[in-house]
Design goal:
Largest sheet: 5 strands, mixed
Radius of gyration: 15 Å
Strand order of the largest sheet: 2-1-5-4-3
CATH topology: Phenylalanine Hydroxylase
Low-confidence stretches: 73-80
CATH superfamily: Aromatic amino acid hydroxylase
Strand content: 5-15%
Shape: globular
């Protein structure tokens, strides 16, 4: 939490959320989820590490997240449940990716290094939120919860 990029990301995220509409906050939540909560860092599988607190809070998710997942950069596809999908971080894709909070994640987005968080907050995040809202969400990569 003391890394400058991590701290700046959190501060900027909070400011964006204060000025966002309710619908925009739903999309912003995905950014937080796939970074600060469930983010991975490292260009290659060999140097991949966890920086997301949600992963670290679960011993089983910690082991699972670092499993040799498939490397993807395309739209969501269903993956076997015994292996996660690791995707290169793409802000628009992150904003459009549904998630569930009540099970191990099938998809993790990977940044090259923690300084990438500076690049994210220095980009037009809200412009990308508006674009994601107009495009809509990807199909979920998990079973949809019945109400």
């Amino acid at each position: 939490m003391t890394h400058p990029a991590f701290a700046t990301f959190n501060e900027t995220y909070g400011k964006l959320g204060l000025n966002a509409t309710k619908e925009e906050r739903w999309f912003l939540a995905r950014l937080y989820w796939f970074t600060i909560e469930f983010g991975l860092v490292g260009k290659t599988q060999d140097n991949r590490r966890i920086y997301g607190g949600g992963i670290l809070s679960s011993p089983s998710e910690t082991v699972y997240a670092l499993n040799a997942g498939s490397e993807q950069q395309a739209e969501p596809q269903h993956q076997p449940q015994n292996q996660p999908e690791h995707r290169a971080f793409d802000l628009l894709d992150v904003l459009r990716t549904p998630y569930r909070i009540d099970h191990i994640q099938p998809i993790y987005y990977v940044i090259d290094d923690l300084d990438t968080l500076f690049d994210i907050v220095n980009s037009d995040v809200m412009g990308m939120v508006k674009q994601a809202m107009s495009l809509g969400l990807f199909e979920p990569s998990y079973a949809v919860k019945n109400a």
